[in-house]
Structures are given as C-alpha cells and as structure tokens.
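Translate structure to sequence.
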C-alpha cells in the first residue's frame, strides 16, 4: 500500500510518501517569519501555498511513484492555524478527488503519537506529546487515545519560544534555549506549578522574562528548563503509576531536547519501563507522520471521507478521534 501524507498545521508544509510504513520520501519546507519573531498565520499560509505544488512533485520524484499509484491520501485536519491547514487540505482534496484515491483526515497530534509508537515498535505506550501546540500525557484506552494530563495554559514549546522571543531570540526559540542552558550552572528558584497530572506554565514564563537583564541569560535558560521539565516529569510519573503502562514515548518538537529526554530516561530504572523517542527529524512536524496514520486507517478498513466534506478542524481534540486500528 502506498500512502501520502500532507502536513501544514503551522510552520511546516510537508509531504511524506510511504509504502507500508517504509519511508520513501519526506519533503518539508519550513516558514521562517520575516519581520516578527513569531509565526504570522497568513504569511505562513502564503509560504505554504507557494511551495505546496513543488513539495508534492519533489516527494513523488523521490519516492519514484506516480500520483495515480497512491492508495491512500491523508492530510492534517487540525488542530492548527486555519489559513495554514487549508493549504495542505486543499492539496489532499484535489489529489483525492481528481485521481479517485481514498482520503483520510488526520489529527496532527495523533500523527506525532503514532509515528513514535509505530517507529519505536511500542505496543501500548504512554505518550508524552511536547510541541508548540501540545503538552499532553496520553494513553490509549477504550477505543481512543486519551489525555491523562496536560498543560492548563500554555504549551512547553510555547513557553520556551515566548521566553526566547522576549530575550530577542527568533522562532523557534527552544533549540537556542537548550544550547544556552548547557552553559548555565546556577539554579534560580522559579514558580513550579502542578495540579494533579497537569502542569501550569504561564507564571513561569512571566517570572523568567522578569529576570532578563538581572541574571545571566544562560542561568535563566538553565533554570527555566529545569523547572518546566521537572514539573512535566513529575506529572507524567503520576499518570504512569495510575495507568500502569510499561513504555513511554516522548514525541513532538520539544522531544528533541536532550535534557528533557535525559530526565524522562531516569524513569526507566525507577519504574521498570522503556523510555524512548524517534530520531530527531521525526519529532518535527512532517508529512510522514500523517501518512502513517492514513495507512493505519486504510489498513483497518475504516471508511475514507468524501473530499467534499473534508473540512479542517482548527480546535479538534485528541479524544474526539476514533481509533479503529487498536484494541
Ligand atoms: P512542533 O510544534 O512539533 O513543530 O515543534 C516545534 C516546537 O519544538 C517549538 O516550540 C520549538 O521551539 C521546539 N523545539 C524544537 N527543538 C527543541 C529543542 N532542542 N529543545 C526545546 N524545544 C525544541
Ligand atoms: Mg507538531
């Protein structure tokens, strides 16, 4: 089975082509804000619209496949930025209706969850989804991927990016904060907020921004990471004990962070679980993760959607999505 996935929730327009979960092509173009330090949805969508056809052509060439040989077309249906989502959805709808190929809308977060789960060959993981759009502790139960803990305000990616922006670091700030933190050594006490299995980050953002100019930037980055990541690991550890899962997959853009990963790794011995993440490039947004889910839908015999009804859903939640390929 040959499957194509299109991704365009935010900064990345991506086209991935797989054959039975083997990656044949993974083309991505990332929009970088021109004037501001954060994403401008309309400007990002313009970027995607200009590049979509080229990305599709490149992916087909790389995969050495003709468009009418595709068996499945999948697109990121949400959550994400409306203007951006519409570009990838339009491309997928066109391919599906013109070439009569079954079409599947895919929840972007489930793309992150399943690429980790499938590529790491984990059967029933607890998934920590950490990105610009999500900070969620997820497990599968009773037909759905369900959220057992999450941020009650901003995401961890947003926390790092927003702090970075205030410090004059352009988007995405996370990688730069990680580098600076490596040179920090002094821990500055910061607001540490957990409610149940949930984390709260806005107080931490305000506080760390208020320290700019008063402490070394490296020390603020170090303390910010230490505080934010400790809270997330503590919340995850609680959920882990409740759920009794034996595998933990860390996924999403912030999963690239080595310090965060090392903190989660400590749970291996403490709780006798396996902790892992996919290779770094698959933690970023990409079309491959969308194609993975398209494949899972098709293989399970789930009915495709009529291209005329393939609307985007900017605010779709993870639990809303039926998961027919797991039991
Ligand atoms: P996504 O939303 O999945 O595209 O992931 C993008 C987010 O991941 C942005 O918030 C980035 O700042 C963040 N990110 C990427 N690499 C790192 C890193 N090494 N450390 C922390 N955050 C990162
Ligand atoms: Mg993402």
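Result:
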């Amino acid at each position: 089975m040959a499957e194509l996935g299109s991704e365009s929730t935010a900064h990345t327009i991506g086209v991935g082509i797989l054959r039975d979960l083997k990656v044949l092509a993974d083309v991505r173009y990332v929009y970088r804000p021109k004037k501001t330090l954060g994403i401008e949805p309309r400007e990002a969508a313009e970027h995607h619209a200009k590049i979509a056809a080229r990305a599709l052509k490149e992916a087909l060439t790389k995969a050495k496949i003709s468009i009418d040989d595709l068996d499945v077309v999948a697109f990121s249906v949400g959550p994400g930025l409306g203007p951006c989502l519409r570009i990838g959805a339009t491309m997928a709808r066109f391919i599906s209706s013109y070439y009569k190929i079954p079409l599947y809308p895919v929840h972007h977060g489930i793309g992150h969850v399943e690429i980790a789960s499938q590529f790491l060959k984990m059967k029933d993981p607890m998934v920590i989804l950490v990105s610009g759009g999500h900070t969620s502790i997820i497990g599968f139960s009773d037909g759905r991927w369900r959220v057992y803990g999450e941020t009650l305000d901003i995401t961890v990616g947003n926390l790092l990016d927003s702090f970075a922006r205030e410090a004059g670091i352009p988007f995405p700030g996370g990688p730069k904060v990680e580098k600076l933190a490596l040179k920090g050594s002094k821990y500055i006490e910061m607001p540490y907020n957990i409610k149940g299995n949930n984390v709260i980050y806005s107080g931490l953002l305000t506080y760390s921004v208020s320290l700019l100019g008063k402490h070394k930037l490296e020390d603020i980055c170090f303390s910010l990471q230490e505080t934010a990541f400790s809270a997330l690991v503590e919340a995850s550890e609680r959920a882990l004990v409740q759920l009794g899962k034996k595998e933990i997959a860390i996924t999403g853009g912030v999963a690239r962070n080595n310090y965060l990963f090392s903190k989660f790794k400590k749970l291996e011995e403490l709780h006798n679980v396996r902790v892992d993440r996919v290779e770094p490039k698959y933690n970023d947004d990409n079309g491959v993760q969308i194609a993975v889910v398209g494949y899972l839908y098709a293989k399970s015999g789930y009915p495709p959607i009529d291209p005329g009804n393939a609307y985007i859903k900017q605010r779709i939640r993870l639990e809303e999505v039926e998961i027919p390929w797991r039991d």
